[in-house]
Amino acid sequence: MSLFKILIVAAIAYGGYSYWSDKRISRAVQAQVNAAGPTGFVAIPTPEGQTTRSVIVFAPPNCPEEAGQRADELMRRLADKGIPAQRASSANFSFANPDPTVVAQVQRVMGGELPVVFINGTGKANPSLDDVLAQYQATR
Questions:
Q1: Do 114 and 89 contact (CB within 8 A), yes or no?
Q2: 3-class DSSP state for residue 27?
Q3: How many CB atoms neighbour CB 84 within 10 A?
Q4: Which of 103, 115, 132, 139 has the most other CB atoms within 10 Å of its CB?
Q5: Rounded CA gap, 109 and 56, in Å?
Q6: 10 Å Cβ neighbour count for 101?
Q7: For residue 55, is pLDDT > 50?
Q8: Lateral strand order in the sheet of 85-88
Q9: How far is CA 139 from the centre of its chain?
């Protein structure tokens, strides 16, 4: 009978720890979102193989859907303004010692509406041209 009590206590302790850990991660991600600033860009690692010297626009190439059209228009308007930008269709991230809040932030941004835009260590899903321009100027 005492083994059963020990298992119950262990299960309750594990459940409490798991609940607390999830809440802590959620609060940390929400704090990052709240600290995003006026443009809505949040601190996020730059995808592997990409440069931090230009705006990176992630969207499928030659996509006729609305998201692809938004990416095409954003690329055209950035070129018109002389802002270095590159288009990519995939992003890879690797984490040596993954911080759960950083991983959650990457998932939130990459899981958002396309195009996803990265600028100097920050990212945002489907930003407006004004947001991209303001973030580019702020992080130069």
A1: no
A2: helix
A3: 12
A4: 115
A5: 14
A6: 17
A7: yes
A8: 42-43, 122-125, 116-119, 55-58, 85-88
A9: 17
- Give the confidence band of 123 by pLDDT, cuts at 50, 70, 90: very high
Distance CA 31, CA 81 (A): 33
Cis peptide before 98 (omega within 30 of 0): no
CB 47 within 8 A of CB 19: no
d(CA 77, CA 54): 14
- Provide the pLDDT confidence category of residue 29 given band limits of 50, 70 and 90: low
Query: Mean pLDDT across the stretch 82-94?
Result: 88
For position 115, what pLDDT does the model report? 94
Asked whether the beta carbons of 32 and 44 are under 8 A apart, the reply is no
Q: What is the pLDDT of residue 48?
A: 83
